[in-house]
Amino acid sequence: MPTRRTVLAGTAAAAALSTLPTPVHAAEAERPPYRWRTAVIGGTGFVTGLLFHPTTPGLAYARTDIGGAYRWDRDTDRWTPLTDHLGWDDWNLLGVEALAVDPAHPGRLYLALGTYTQPWAGNGALLRSEDRGRTWHRSDLPVPLGANEDGRGTGERLLVDPRDSATLWLGTRHDGLLKSTDRGDSWQRQTGFPGIPSGTGQGVTLLVAAGRTLYAGWGDGDGTSAHPNLYRTTDGTTWEPVPGQPVGASARVPLRAAHDPGAHALYVTYADAPGPNGQSTGSVHKLDTVTGAWSDVTPAVPGGADTFGYGGVAVAARRPGTVVVSTNNRWSAVDTLYRSTDGGRSWVSLKDTAVLDVSETPYLNWGADKPKFGWWIQAVAVDPYDSAHLLYGTGATVYGTYDLVHWTPRVRGLEETSVRQLISPPAGPAHLISANGDIGVLYHERLTASPKSGMATNPVFGTATGLALAAAKPSYAVRTGWGDHGNGAFSTDGGRTWTPFPAQPALAKDAPGPIAVSADGSVLLWTLVHWDGTKYPAHRSADGGRTWAEVPSFPRGATPVADPVDPAVFHAYDTDTGTLYGSTDHGRTFAPRFAGLPSGDSQFQLAAAPGRTGDLWVSAKENGLYRSTDAGAGFTKADGVRASHTVGFGKAAPGARYPAVYQVGALTGSGVAVLRSDDGGRTWVRINDDAHQWGWTGQTITGDPRRYGRVYLGTNGRGIQYGEPA
Hints:
Layout lengths: L5 E2 L10 E2 L14 E5 L8 E6 L6 E6 L4 E5 L4 E4 L14 E7 L2 E9 L11 E5 L7 E4 L17 E3 L7 E4 L5 E4 L7 E2 L14 E7 L2 E6 L11 E4 L6 E2 L11 E8 L4 E7 L10 E7 L5 E3 L12 E7 L7 E6 L8 E4 L7 E2 L5 E2 L22 E4 L7 E4 L4 E4 L4 E4 L9 E5 L8 E5 L3 E5 L16 E9 L7 E7 L4 E4 L7 E2 L11 E6 L6 E6 L5 E7 L7 E3 L8 E3 L7 E5 L4 E5 L7 E4 L10 E4 L7 E4 L5 E4 L5 E4 L3 E10 L9 E8 L5 E5 L7 E2 L13 E4 L7 E4 L5 E6 L1
Parallel strand pairs: 2-51, 28-32
Antiparallel strand pairs: 1-51, 3-58, 4-5, 5-6, 6-7, 8-9, 9-10, 10-11, 12-13, 13-14, 14-15, 16-17, 17-18, 18-19, 20-21, 21-22, 22-23, 24-25, 25-26, 26-27, 29-30, 30-31, 31-32, 33-34, 34-35, 36-37, 37-38, 38-39, 40-41, 41-42, 42-43, 44-45, 45-46, 46-47, 48-49, 49-50, 50-51, 52-53, 53-54, 54-55, ...
Family: Belongs to the glycosyl hydrolase 74 family.
Keywords: Carbohydrate metabolism, Glycosidase, Hydrolase, Polysaccharide degradation, Signal
InterPro entries: TAT_signal, WD40/YVTN_repeat-like_dom_sf, Xyloglucanase_GH74
């Protein structure tokens, strides 16, 4: 980084930041080869769709709400990620709304991508592959898709027409039914489709072929015969309501459908809401596709305290009459799979005899003695070549069985964690501690196996909001988040085990935010931020969390950063005003130090270089990267760094005196990438490649203080990626 700087006292105007032109572009030929792998946790996210290929043994696909799509290979018993090539600008495409295969062409795979339908997210895209997802052809869609919105477990909304492999059908949430006759390069809205988008966000919920007849579910009806929710076409042009279809609250939204050709039956699952939350009743119905007669084959009728809907449905292709359905949102009695071998006349609950072994992914115990069968079960698949081989997705994993009794997580290679913060300790058995969405804090003694201790307990967190290590006393760590018995905890063994704070600020119950700990572990600073963004005063404790006092001078909502050398010094970056604050009295009071930093955006980070006092770095989204060597009295802007989203540090390069600096950012004239500097930020080299981009990666990055070149990267849906020089 530049050494010349502008020093400004107090809150004096600081609009002029000094820059020192330095070469920052590393030539492509100089880029060192890196090997990228995924740290093993095992699933952790909502698997919204599972699909066995109907004519190719041992081939299956999975889709997720924010973590892309995967291909399963029976020979390796692993999932291969298929969308890691999607980069920063395409972050919205990591949500997979629907997938489809072509039975007549085993290599063909289609993905309908788009995470949100809001205007700021942009339209979706279609990826098509001829080689099972190894390479892709992309077509941008004229409409948005909502893979991480309500109803994301319905479907599939994408279908290859059985009459013509070049014809695709796509059900949308707000734009009706689309048809393509050129394999997705162009689309036309079907004016003959009766459904009228109501704006509630469901639209077409499913598409399925039964022979040459196509069926489409409509999720915006009211459960009455005046507004049908299941339509069909026999000619690919004219759509009509399916006669005699069920009505009522328990059949308001068709969730999924499966065709049993041997039994001439179409099974449809229903609920009163699209899910995965908010369902209180549901049903399962069977249509005889020859006679047109409907039968109510609901395994268990919701009622009383046992409220739920139905979700997934799958048939055994070579065993007519064998069908599996799932309950969903059944919190009192816990969700289950029901299986029938007589066309739905009788059912067996597979949960009742299930033996679950989660030793490969211990976090699935959720801090209890044993795991639950699952929740948010809307994806169910039966192997067409083995009726006892079942898969089902949950809000955290994929379970599988080969004998209908013994179930294990089937998630090798599938990682969907949203990672909030990463720390690589300077000593101890673990090279990595992570703070995550949904699964709290994990202690990674090995990167190639799910943490054997599972989620950090005492208390169990859902989503973690803060994680910090005392720089001069790394055996002492603290964490915050949404917990079951308190929202803060400390560790005296480097994060292996945890103890709740003896007390917590009253506001922390509803507003746990990030936390910092002084270099010697004597002082805690806890920022309190509600999940809706409301900012409250920070609180300080100097007795290990026994008592807490408000710090009025601390900028509300800022993330506190402790100086790694001087235990009396803390820093905070007020992103609302672009002002850096500092404390030299152990966090009791804060005063503004520099008022010229970028402001007005939530995507900022303040970081302190390890082993140095007052050496601060600020990554400021589209405004670049800044450094101060005098505790924030002045800052220098890095010339040539166009954007910086997150910054971290690792072991210095051989012969170098300054730690390796890592960032997710963009150099002038280049796109967002993972970058490393071995000379204090004067020059940068890209260390990822076009095949390893993972969408949005701007939340956290850190190097390993014990291994030069190793970097840990947090993604929003593809877990923890780590790279090392090859």
